[in-house]
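Question (not urgent): is this output format expected?
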Amino acid sequence: MTLGLVTGAIAISTVPVTYAQDYLANPNQLGMAGEMPLTPEIISKVITINEFALNVQMTAQERREFADIMARHWHSDGGQLQQTVSQLLPAYDQLMQLPETTRKIARRSTVLTFLLGLDKNAAENDEISILMLRAYRRVHPPLLQQAPFVSAEVADAFIDAYLFINEIKSGQKAPALSEAARAKTRLGIASDFARMPESQRAQFIEQMGRATNLMLTWPKMESWEKLLARAEVGAPLSPQEQQMAQQIRHRLNGHSMQMAINELNFMAQNQQTIMGSAPYWNPSTQAWEQKGGIVTEFR
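Got this back:
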């Protein structure tokens, strides 16, 4: 029983979740698995973290179904469910302390991977995965039927990741897209994703995750790390900065930071394949411009 649970890398929503009525009415019915009691608080936390991971608010009926599935499997899966939950709960309290913006970016970096995992588990009749996919599709319908997991929220994660890459490259804050431009770009991403072979989809998802993780860490990165990132996405550098970036590359040969930066380079080179040229800052005109692609209006 996988329960479709997210990993500790995903943060937690602060929105309270109503306890399943069946268990509130008779808490003595709550089961025990080893030394760990299945309490309403545990059920609530597991529901909350799954709600947050998919940015949904489950209905009262869905919460009751979720709680019932947990209770039925608490004794019958050889302790697998209890072990999964026991690993999840410590991360719950820690991640609850993260700022809301950080939680949102963390969720976006993994939502598509999480959805694909739920789909795989649902194909194996995992009850919670089936339930969570149903809740997700109710709240976040697909943009195209050919790409059933690319909702507006998923597409926005890709858009914002590419805009962030261009912010690194230009040194300027990305413009606010008009709703019409964003809607058109979302459809373009869904269409591209629908045509991709599985191998390219996996690479696409990984690149977006790396860029989104960079968004999380950027404010706390050292100046040399930011310099290297700017160099790899093609930002204009002074001769002194170019020399410094080359020295850093030499020192980081084989380092995990270098591998992450290489992904940024690849992502920047393949922007037009994914969504056309994202907005870029033209120093000569002091304005945001674009060459081809979908995004043609920013406000």
